[in-house]
Specification:
Layout lengths: L6 E5 L7 H11 L3 E6 L2 H10 L5 E4 L5 H15 L2 E6 L18 H22 L3 E11 L11 H21 L5 E7 L13 H10 L9 H12 L10 E4 L7
Parallel strand pairs: 1-2, 1-4, 2-3, 4-5, 5-6, 6-7
Helix pairs in contact: 1-7, 3-4, 4-5
The structure holds nicotinamide-adenine-dinucleotide (NAD).
């Protein structure tokens, strides 16, 4: 159990289909104590159904510096130092996830960047004083960052920014003994993905490209995340690890 005694913050569980939930399960399996953050009351209700009584649930809306500050202040007061953080948060208005990229609005572009890319920096800043040496930060990305995937549009652009953010943040955090990486997950049916126009075709196409025709699971992504937040991954810095059963190869 390589996360025995480790306290890990998990951001982004919306329900039991969430990639963050796959991360939570894998980390629990490795002995971690979990602290969940949720976006709003609606998400809290879903999360409360999944979490165990000993888990800590804290509100954190990443569009608000005050909410982030309050959340990490509460984490420090309740558990003290932490050993890792999973950032599995993204959002775009539905109308920006389809049609022409030339129709992306200025507001929609800024919002997607704010929640899906900038938030990693804002959260890392708040978490930095709490993260012990040997801790890991992991974020979630998608190969729409490096390829033009139909309809992924504004989120692909935000994921490109997020991956660059991983590299710059990793270079900084390495100096305090914290390794930062991203996982590029294969397409999985979640709440977030259902905002992408024609998402069923995206998932079908993605599944058909895996070696066995079966898509990657949140549990498989979670297992890699568990490794990447742990001290076992101290030598992996600023990387994007593909967990998509080889879809990106073909
Ligand atoms: N599902 C996929 O196919 C896939 C593939 C690769 C990467 N990803 C990425 O994985 C991550 C998790 O997404 P998911 O697919 O599990 O979907 P999900 O809908 O289960 O999770 C997205 C989470 O983002 C949170 N969020 C949105 N706005 C927020 C805000 N302002 N403050 C705090 N939290 C906020 C939501 O509450 C939700 O919990 C995202 O970064 C997503 O882009 C998903």
């Amino acid at each position: 159990m390589f996360l025995e005694g480790k306290k890990i913050v998990i951001m982004g569980v919306a329900n039991n289909k969430s990639i963050a939930w796959g991360c939570a399960k894998a980390m629990k399996d490795q002995g971690a104590t979990l602290i969940y953050t949720y976006q709003n009351e609606r998400m809290e209700k879903q999360l409360a159904k999944l979490a165990e009584p000993e888990d800590l649930l804290i509100e954190c809306d990443v569009t608000s510096d005050e909410s982030i500050r309050r959340a990490f202040g509460t984490i420090e007061a309740r558990v003290g130092k932490i050993d890792g953080l999973v950032h599995a948060v993204a959002y775009s208005k539905k109308e920006e996830l389809g049609g022409n990229v030339t129709d992306i609005s200025r507001d929609g572009y800024a919002l997607a960047q704010d929640i899906s890319a900038y938030s990693l920096l804002a959260v890392a800043k708040a978490a930095k004083p709490l993260l012990k040496k040997g801790s890991g930060i992991v974020t979630l990305t998608y190969m729409g960052s490096v390829r033009a995937i139909p309809n992924y549009n504004v989120m692909g652009i935000a994921k490109a920014a997020l991956e660059s953010t991983v590299r710059y943040l990793a270079a900084e955090m390495a100096h305090v003994g914290v390794h930062v990486n991203g996982i590029s997950a294969g397409a999985i049916k979640t709440l977030a993905v259902s905002g992408v126009s024609g998402y069923k075709d995206l998932i079908k196409e993605s599944d058909s490209r895996t070696a066995d025709g079966v898509g990657v699971t949140i549990e498989e992504v979670g297992q890699t995340a568990a490794f990447l937040v742990s001290p076992l991954a101290s030598g992996v810095i600023g990387d994007i690890v593909y967990v998509d059963k080889g879809v990106h190869l073909t």
